[in-house]
Amino acid sequence: MKEYGEANHVPIINAKGLHVLTETVAQKRPRRVLEIGTAIGYSTLYIAANGADDVEIVTLELSDERADEAEGFIKRSRFAGQITIVRGDAGENILRQSGRFDLVFIDAAKGQYPDYFRKVYPLLAEDGVVIADNVLFRGYVRGSEPVPRRFRTIVKRLREYIGMVTENDEFRTEIHEDGDGLAVSWRYR
Predict the structure, then answer these.
(1) What confidence tens digit (pLDDT) does each residue in 58-106 have?
(2) CA pair distance 166, 48, nearest whole angstrom
(3) Those residues with Cβ within 8 angstroms of residue 57's Cβ, 6 or more apart along the chain or in another chain
(4) DSSP strand E in 37-178: where?
(5) CA 182, CA 13: separation in Å to the nearest integer?
(6) Domain carrying residue 170
(7) Number of domains into which the chain is organized
């Protein structure tokens, strides 16, 4: 999958982010997971392999082409019966979810992270964890370099997201700065 992703320019989680993701999932052992941004299912299958034995994953993907590719990879895995791909706009599809999620992994439209967080918050278990990839976006979010005009909205919203999870008393957040930045926010109530 990694070779396929690289050869076809599919944005998959980098090695350092994947290490933090799998370590966090293995520590949490979630039973219900919501993933926002499936791509080809690369991180989905790593989450499945490190979650609870009976993990159930709902993964949201906007692109039909990517969802088809993910379906192909997932069907060949031992987790096929535990993963549901929901196609369409993630912001709308989050609102169609019910029940509580032990873990939420956000790796989709970077400018939508604050909106995604607001929408998943009511669905997050009281001891749940939210992991968000690419929160430092090419070094611009915490860097001193001027932000190119085309990235200003994304950087502004990622800064807003980081503020949401670091200034909220219900969460303990660690920003892993390797790669493009990964935020791990543990909810404790």
Answers:
(1) 999 999 999 999 999 999 999 999 999 999 999 999 999 999 999 999 9
(2) 27
(3) 33, 34, 35, 44, 47, 48, 51, 79, 82, 83, 84
(4) 56-61, 83-87, 101-106, 124-133, 171-176
(5) 10
(6) 13-187
(7) 1
